[in-house]
Amino acid sequence: MIAALMANTLYSLGFVLEKRALTSLPEVSIRQPARLLRLVLGSPLWIGGSLALASGFGAQLVVYRTLPIAAAQGIFVSGLVLLVLLSARLLGEETTGRERYALGAILAALLMVVLSLKEGSDTVSRSAPYQLILLVCVPSLAGGVWLYGAAERRSRHRHRAPTTGVEYGVAVGLLYGVSSLAIKGVSSYLTTSGLGGAVVDVLRSPYPYILMFTGAFGLVMSQAALQRCRASLIVPVCTTVTCLYTAVLGTLSFGEALPHDPLRLALRLAGTALAVSVLLAMPKHDTAPQQPPIGAKELTP
Fold first, then answer.
1. CA-CA distance, 251 to 255, in Å (whole number)?
2. Model pTM score
3. Cβ-count burial 29-55 (b if 16+ within 10 Å, e if not)
4. 239 and 106 in contact (C-beta within 8 Å)?
């Protein structure tokens, strides 16, 4: 539980720091990845945010060693509250009443998942067949990249209302969901002994290469999306998609059984269904004012 809360804090802080750094940079685009990387790597604030995210990755590895996938994802969603608070304080972002209700519903879904847990009775799986993981991950990666490209094309249309970033969040969330499955796979090799053999086994598996792909594409896609949209909305959407994807497909892929108790099973399924419903009901166009954070530079057209 402590590792999960630490991961939440580090991820929320990392996203907010990156968003603040991006606000003061010239416009970035996925069509110019080299320029994007050059700009962000020249920002100490952005580097601090990326280090916080990397530390959250380390905490996530610990969580996957001790909790079932579905339970871990439910706890990770709790970081959305901290994210909204940090976005309001450090970025000057305001959420609408509809978005606040949506956030409350997501937290209710989290509570359902947490209540469905029973210490010592849920199975924590350690491995899954490579072929099954690839069968799940490859179409998801292709779908995420395609959806992001479609959102980019629609956003360039004249007279289109400003997007909230829901499409971007879903696309990046799919990539990060695949990344979470790979992290779960890597965690299965982490043992207290035989570190050398564990490293060799990891390198023989598809997991590090999936992480490299999702890391590279996720970095470019998420930074361009963060610069254009509010972190207080796009990150919750991305997080919800990632958690749902990992909880559902990860549980099936790694063979982690659902609760046998009818009440606990109903709570877990209802929490998942509520989170999906909220995601589908999220507004597609932005009506909330986007104020630059204190101290941010003005962008010129």
1. 6
2. 0.73
3. ebeebeebeebbeebebbeebbebbeb
4. no
Residue 154 structure tokens: 């629609």
Distance CA 224, CA 32 (A): 10
What is the 3 state secondary structure string of the chain?
A: CHHHHHHHHHHHHHHHHHHHHHHCCCCCCCCCHHHHHHHHHCCHHHHHHHHHHHHHHHHHHHHHHHCCHHHHHHHHCCHHHHHHHHHHHHHCECCCHHHHHHHHHHHHHHHHHHHCCCCCCCCCCCCCCHHHHHHHHHHHHHHHHHHHHHHHHHHCCCCCCCECCHHHHHHHHHHHHHHHHHHHHHHCCCCCCCHHHHHHHHHHCCHHHHHHHHHHHHHHHHHHHHHHCCHHHHHHHHHHHHHHHHHHHHHHHCCCCCCCCHHHHHHHHHHHHHHHHHHHHCCCECCCCECCCCCCCCCCC
The length of the chain in residues reads 301
pLDDT in tens, 83-142: 777 787 778 877 777 777 777 787 787 678 767 766 555 555 556 777 888 888 899 999
Task: Name the CA dihedral angle for 185, 189, 191, 193, rounded to a multiple of 10 degrees.
Answer: -170
Residues 6 or more apart in contact with residue 231 via CB below 8 angstroms: 15, 16, 19, 83, 87, 91, 93
List pLDDT tens digits, range 27-67: 888 888 889 989 999 999 999 999 998 888 778 777 777 77
Closest CA to 93 of 172, 167, 14, 19: 19
